[in-house]
Predict the structure.
Amino acid sequence: MDLIIKGFKEAAKILLSLDSQVVEITKLTLKISGSATLVALLIGIPLGLFLALYRFPGRRLVASLINTGMGLPPVVVGLFLALLFWRSGPLGFLEIMYTPFAMVAAQVVIALPLVTGFTMAAVGALDPDIILQARALGASKAQALLVVLREARLGTLAAAMAGFGGIISEIGAVLMVGGNIKNQTRVLTTAIVLETRMGRFEAAIALSIILMTLSFTVNYLLTTIQQRGSNNWPRRYLR
Amino acid sequence: MDLIIKGFKEAAKILLSLDSQVVEITKLTLKISGSATLVALLIGIPLGLFLALYRFPGRRLVASLINTGMGLPPVVVGLFLALLFWRSGPLGFLEIMYTPFAMVAAQVVIALPLVTGFTMAAVGALDPDIILQARALGASKAQALLVVLREARLGTLAAAMAGFGGIISEIGAVLMVGGNIKNQTRVLTTAIVLETRMGRFEAAIALSIILMTLSFTVNYLLTTIQQRGSNNWPRRYLR
Amino acid sequence: MAAPLLKVENLKQIYSGSTILDIDSFELNSGEPTVIFGPNGSGKSTLLRLLALLERPSAGKIFYGESEVGPKNSLFFSREVALLLQRPIFFSSSVRENIIFGLKARKVEKSRIEEGLKEVALLFKLESLLSKRPHELSGGQAQRVNLARAFILKPKLLLLDEPFSALDAAIREELISSLKRAITKTSQTTLFVTHHREEAALLAKRMVVMLDGKIVQDGGVDEVFTKPAGLEVAKLIGIETILHGRIEERLGELAKVIVDGGSFIVDVSGAPGNEVTLFIRPEDVFIAKERVSSSIRNWFEGEIVEVNSLGRLFLLTLNSGFHLKAMVTGLAREELGLDVGAKVWAGVKSSSIHAVKE
Amino acid sequence: MAAPLLKVENLKQIYSGSTILDIDSFELNSGEPTVIFGPNGSGKSTLLRLLALLERPSAGKIFYGESEVGPKNSLFFSREVALLLQRPIFFSSSVRENIIFGLKARKVEKSRIEEGLKEVALLFKLESLLSKRPHELSGGQAQRVNLARAFILKPKLLLLDEPFSALDAAIREELISSLKRAITKTSQTTLFVTHHREEAALLAKRMVVMLDGKIVQDGGVDEVFTKPAGLEVAKLIGIETILHGRIEERLGELAKVIVDGGSFIVDVSGAPGNEVTLFIRPEDVFIAKERVSSSIRNWFEGEIVEVNSLGRLFLLTLNSGFHLKAMVTGLAREELGLDVGAKVWAGVKSSSIHAVKE
Amino acid sequence: APAQKAKPANENLILSTTTSTQDSGLLDGLIPIFEEEYGYKVKVVAVGSGEAIQMGKDGNADVLLVHSPADEETFMNEGFAGERLAVMHNDYVLLGPENDPAHVKGMKVAEAFKAALDKGAVFVSRADNSGTHKKELKIWAEVGVTPSGANYLESGQGMGDSLTLASEKGAYILADRGTYLSMKGSLSLVILTEGENILFNPYHVMTLNKAKFDKVNHEGAADFVKFITDPKTQDFISKFGTGEFGQPLFYPDAA
Ligand SMILES: Nc1ncnc2c1ncn2[C@@H]1O[C@H](COP(=O)(O)OP(=O)(O)OP(=O)(O)O)[C@@H](O)[C@H]1O
Ligand SMILES: Nc1ncnc2c1ncn2[C@@H]1O[C@H](COP(=O)(O)OP(=O)(O)OP(=O)(O)O)[C@@H](O)[C@H]1O
Ligand SMILES: [Mg+2]
Ligand SMILES: [Mg+2]
């Protein structure tokens, strides 16, 4: 208990002093996980839409692969990407191992199934005639798809949150392909692990608080968008 | 590349030999993550239903907290639970640190926000009158809630998959509170990390393959249930 | 006297601050087919939801038989009722599963479920659609499924919210007559909402008219159709001629009423000078080439200014100082040459003019 | 001659293996209000979806004006059309946003959107509902929003799939007459589906009857109502008396037809011995206490066996060897004492009996 | 050798140790023997030296097996420890790429460090307060250099991961011989400097102060000390790894 309280005190100190090291790490974390989330959304949402809206042979298999991709262990992702990116690996010539780029790549791989899978689920649960309705009023295909996304926003924004939350808090993959190199690839999670291994639990707690504050802030904003105007429920049918 | 091929060969060997050590680790992994998923579903689904169906002051805040909980870093969960469970911590007297029980607890904490958040999103996206319709035909409240869950199954099963997939592949928390103790708390992810650290990449790859096979199998089964009869989409409105 | 099947006292429903429903009292006896009639937004669907015990009222009491409905017995009583929703929602399973949903919820045994299914599938012509999914149905087919899943329950009280919408004319008429037979035979109590006068007249004996959440008239269908309680009700039941006037003199039971452009002998109480509104249904106006001697007291000569086809019935507008609408058959129209510009006589019986003092 | 607004050739739609729609050809000219009539599941909604270019047909061509519709111009032409869906879906935003959705999609400027909104809000009595959310509306209010969001687009072609369902009688009638005015004034081409004969007769000039995915009759509304193309159409348009018989002898233009229980003089071609079906609309049967001398050729004496109220019109069933249905007004019923058991005479003009050779 | 003992009062024993003992596989060999002979169930928690010692300070472990002499002494001086006994040692080696871009081969290790950094070659430091890291800092202190710069990479990871990083970057790194030997196959690093006194890497076992910690399993800790310093065990250690690597990974010190 003592330790926890001490941790919070230390956290407050570190936060208030705005340690430049900590600020750098935080910035890098946001940059990496932010861009990874963005990339995952840019690929995952159209992909999820496509899988939900079109029927083609093998669709169910692809859906299964996407869903099982949600269980892709970050360590495994890290390991496989490392095997690819290492000098000895087939993509070694790119020289991206131990760079933020490699970390973004790993995080995209982790977030993509989440975003795709949940977009698919959310869109698939809509009334299919929503597209018909939009088109009947003159929406173009693109406009109709936007309507679909807007109506599915509870799910897709939850997907974005799960994706962002999953990768900003992830350690296995970034450690493997990033290497936790100070000033280069050290992000909040890897820093937390390092502090913990060094037995500096207060510092670890302080960094955890920063990490959580970050992910809380982003997800709070997204929740606000998500829940906006979603007061459909409830009538009083269950009281 | 070489390494990857060697890895797969080694993996095949280990898998075929049914190494008793590996079997034990696999069983433990399934037991821990399976029961954690179950607990998370048992708490998360009712909670998600409640949050989606009832309006009360502060609901939006709780929803935000749940959603941001999706970004709870496993390392942080691990660290905080460790601080609680260690002998020096407030719950030290329970003596559950470095036991499977502690690992289940940590994984429940990680999976719960996912399950709750996505159940909430999936149910919230349904037509609210679905309950009215079920009750109008004589369903009891419990039966009406079951109908709601069945109609929201695309989302809730995706939530179950994300939850299970997230925790079976998670390392930060189980390492911290489980300790990767041989024959006691060593699970697939911690074993993979250990093998990697020891430079035994083939073994690490072999274990990764087992882990992925496991999570693939479970999620494939769930996808099959999820997609059963969900051929609402599409009519041909977008061709 | 036996308690009515259903009784309601001071029932109120308030949504986001505005009172949607406010009913002092309402009773329903077993086996009395009743229709609720009222403009859009008058609270009909809300009332049905409350009677089916699906919502908690903001205030008021509901009795089934002798018992007041409360949290303890509400599931029991809600299963004695089936409500057909105006906007149905289908569960994403087969048509078959949708139809037997209510019986399954009541844990009825399999063989009886199959029996019931067969019966309603026949009645609503759903045999070939049972294995389809609801979104593959046409609008009318879907409504038939909606009907089937309420009827299969054979509840003590059937609440039907616009049950015939989307049905084609042939099926609608067939269904109405078989329903009528079923209602009389099994004395299944039915309370339904419709916006079509013929459906109301064909099926119901009693008519409850709602306006703005309140019951404004409650009586026999004939009574409502002949003596609507006010202007809005009159419009709703299709009275096209509404005239304002003043009693000039009393003629015993009857009175002479002056309107702008003419005068009527009507059956109304009140002293000379009293203001009255006259309601005249187009079906009650008799059109002839010349004034014929009969019990008809009011005769007007006029020119036809508009003719509207309603299929093979025609709605004429006659100008005889004031505008009078009359309904004639295609046959009469041909025989009498009732086209725009034709001069004809119109007769209205005193007893079929509904006069309301203002 | 100018190209029709819309032309369709060999249009087919196949869902999961079964042919839902199969139309050889269909044309629609500007400013010609047309109704599609047909039983449930006959493919009406499917046809409208295809005409609105929302689905790809399995086969066939659609022309708008001179141009065949293809992937390149389909967005353009789909924006010249607005389709009101039978089962509307509302977007989870305000009523206001729902109404202006189509204009926004077309990137119409704000001030014109506001104008349009004002106009339809007035027409459909939605002023007080604009800031509500769709799920807070009553059934009829929702349908009015559905109407408003199609009408605000002022498209060249308006496709309406059961536009008046759920509307209360007063609003329905008001709307129909204002629509009628608008259609004639702006020569807005309108193609609509309804299951109510009066709505069809009131609004449309042309009537297209569909059965099983095919167009089986296409002509003036009056023509379809008087000369239905077959048994099913006859039932659909409310012909209650359908008799099978055989031509006994020719009487010049006319022929004497023997049916089970009696005989008719009808206007039909064909040699003696030919089988014919006679369709008699209840509105075309004249009821009198005794046979009156007039141009009516067919007279039967019979007994009233059933009386059904349709409000203030009544449907009588007469037994005079065969069953004959007749429609009378409440007035006539009272005057003539037309109750079950009464003996009366029924007259039917030769010209109003529709005879079809089998 | 002690005879089979009676079942201990508290059979759970938490051994907090550094990753090198676990990663080398030594504990996987020793612990089952100890459990068998003494009847304990051992929880081996392999963490960084810093965390291991901190766990001792908090009483969250029962016995420590670590290799960070300076920290161990502070730990003793602050009164946390019971006894502290030498168990074994191995040594550190300076590794680098085969082509040795900074030409440090043959230099004294401290000189070599300085030369590598000065010539702009990449040097990987674990920078995690581990025993190895502490040793590295001590060597830097010898030449009076505070290492920094873009070519001084602080990996913040364990030995194995840092070795992989160094190998990938073609960098110089200080490593313990045991881990190097066990990972040699997957690394392109060779030994450039070895055998100096300063590279000596001793492992000690420590128990905790009975007076300070009441929940700690002191009896078990004592048994573990007895076991690990037992000649038989020491013999096991001296042979461990000879089969696989041609030389032992650790040299016994307690005999
Ligand atoms: N959730 C809600 N929040 C606010 N107002 C509501 C809500 N639900 C219904 N209303 C309002 O309550 C009134 C009554 O609605 P109700 O559905 O009972 O009307 P109705 O008589 O069935 O009308 P219709 O003939 O159009 O079906 C309407 O004015 C409607 O706008
Ligand atoms: N997705 C689908 N899969 C299979 N059959 C379908 C599908 N959609 C419609 N159908 C069938 O196509 C037929 C025509 O449907 P459509 O909706 O066009 O009928 P409709 O004439 O509009 O009928 P209604 O008057 O009931 O609205 C129906 O028999 C319906 O069951
Ligand atoms: Mg309603
Ligand atoms: Mg339809």
